[in-house]
Amino acid sequence: METLVQTPAAVRKLYIESYGCAMNFSDSEIIASIMGENGFEPTQDEFDADVIFLNTCAIRDNAEQRIRERLKHLRANKKQNRDLIIGVLGCMAERLKDKLLEEEKLVDVVAGPDSYRELPKLVAEVDEGARAINVLLSREETYGDLNPVRLNSNGVSAFISIMRGCDNMCSFCVVPFTRGRERSRDPESILREAKELAIAGYKEITLLGQNVDSYLWFGGGPKKEFKNLSEEEKSQAVDFADLLEMTALAVPEMRIRYSTSHPRDIDEKVVKTMARFKNICNYIHLPAQSGNSRVLDMMSRNYTREWYMEKVKMIRDILPDCGISCDIIAGFCTETEDEHQDTLSLMEWSQFDFSYMYKYSERPGTPAAKKLADDVPEDVKGRRLQEIIALQNEISKTRNQRYIGQVVEVLVEAESKRSADEWMGRNDQNIVTVFPKENYQKGDLVKVLVESASTTTLRGRAVGRVEWL
Ligand code: 5AD
Ligand code: SF4
Fold first, then answer.
1. Which pLDDT band, with edges at 50, 70 and 90, does 1 fall under?
2. Does a structural domain hold residue 76?
3. pLDDT > 70 fraction of the chain, expressed in percent and rounded
4. Which residue among 401, 431, 448 closes a domain?
């Protein structure tokens, strides 16, 4: 028999640094997969890398400034290794396009969120001495057929991207311009990925999309609304509630989470599906952005304060112990003091478990930048944000204290940052919980009796294992 002696293809090292939202971190795993099939292996050491990719975010100006600073620092790496290839990928690449090649002289590759399959080719062009760019957006690309390479994973929880892009056109937001039109991924490929993660020992998945409630699969192609489907398409259509149910059944031994919901689109079908399955976590991220209907209208959010309150009520009626978190923007264009007070009163009424809170940052090219004056002074934005944060801290503390004396279910994710003797995980409602390790292991679902609670963390002790897992 002939023996084939194969020389292994030269392996080059790839270092990826991710910024921004969970979707972007999930994209980095797709990038690692595409590059992996083309002879690049991930490294955790930037000084060991042949290629450095920054997978960037453009949501607020300060995110972009941080990335620019990082690019300046990377000059040092380039000085040590002249062949080092530096790529800017993701939302900032899509927003700034060839300006990045002109402005940041050390950038060799620029690639937008829909052109990651082209990355090996783009790097090959750089090998030939060119600088390479692809920022074409797609109506179909979902990367559904790829097997993401789990990066920096705790081996317990993983993200699964179920759709890409966004069609909402909130007036403040750059995402529709950087991530293109909304498209849903084939449910079969989502379930396959979930099952593979279960086999690999993962215990929790988070289904990701910019607006999961508008997930709709009817055989592919550009997005249509349900009412515009043919009868045949309707009979085969899978909406988000269907997908949640299919996932809960496909991996009954895993915890399921999802993000992000849109207050206009979340409906009873989704919340009732959550109520029916023990393995779907009781937690909803439901960004309000503002508590005032005039501001919401200027933001093109397509709902009012009252509509938002109805949705919170619907969730609490069906799932009384559901965790709800929020995103809030302080000082949007033309926001008055009274309108800011409306945001505070909505927070008080809704009793969010926690919130992500930001000052409005004008993004070039967005409808707000084109049509509205960014007229709330910086110091007023700052003061309003501080008031929002102070109120949320108070609410979070009270909300967390209600767990004292109760037993919560915690999936062990990692060692606590503060102590090597303690585990850290999250309860069903997504609140960080810490307890002494005893004989429990990473990946265990543990019953924890809560003994104290701060604004961000529950502390307690283990009282047994949860049976269903
Ligand atoms: N300025 C401030 N915050 C923004 N967000 C999106 N765009 C902007 C902006 N231009 C916030 C919203 C969104 C979250 C992901 O980021 O609250 O829900
Ligand atoms: Fe994510 Fe939006 Fe930032 Fe893009 S701009 S990485 S979609 S948060």
1. very low
2. yes
3. 97
4. 401
How many angstroms does the Cα of residue 323 sit away from the middle of ligand 2?
Answer: 24
CA distances from 300 to 109, 167, 174, 338 (A): 35, 12, 13, 20
Give the position, in ligand 1's atom list, of the atom nearest the Cα of 359.
2
**Domain contains 330:** yes
pLDDT band at 6 (very low <50, low <70, confident <90, very high): very low
Does the CB atom of residue 457 touch ligand 1 within 6 A? no
Written as one letter, the residue type at 353 is D
Ligand 1 centroid from CA 268, angstroms:
26
CATH code of 393's domain: 3.80.30.20
Give the tens place of pLDDT for each residue, 316-350: 999 999 999 999 999 999 999 999 999 999 999 99
The residue out of 401, 419, 445 marking a domain boundary is 401
The number of angstroms, rounded, from the C-alpha of 227 to the middle of its chain's C-alpha atoms is 29
Statement: the pTM of the whole predicted model exceeds 0.85: yes
Identify whether residues 65 and 118 lie together within a single domain. Answer: yes
Among protein residues, the one with the nearest Cα to ligand 1's atom 7 is 173
> Positive or negative CA dihedral for 238, 240, 243, 245?
negative
Question: How remote is the CA of residue 262 from the centroid of ligand 1, in Å?
Answer: 14
Q: Same domain for 227 and 94?
A: no
- Residue 117, class by beta-carbon neighbours within 10 Å (0-12 exposed, 13-18 middle, 19+ buried)? middle
Contact partners, residue 208, CB within 8 Å, separation at least 6: 22, 23, 26, 159, 160, 161, 162, 258, 259
Range of the domain at 23: 12-134
Q: CA–CA separation, 428 vs 450, rounded Å?
A: 13
Mean pLDDT of the chain: 94
Q: Are residues 274 and 161 in the same domain?
A: yes
First to last CA, the chain: 50
- Which token pair is 117? 């399959």
Contact 55 CB / ligand 1 (< 6 Å): no
Indicate if 188 and 321 belong to the same structural domain.
Answer: yes
Q: Give how many domains the chain has, as a whole number.
A: 3
Ligand 2 in contact with 23 (CB < 6 A)?
Answer: yes
Q: Which atom of ligand 2 is nearest to the CA of 24?
A: 6
Read off the CATH number of the domain in which 83 is found.
3.40.50.12160
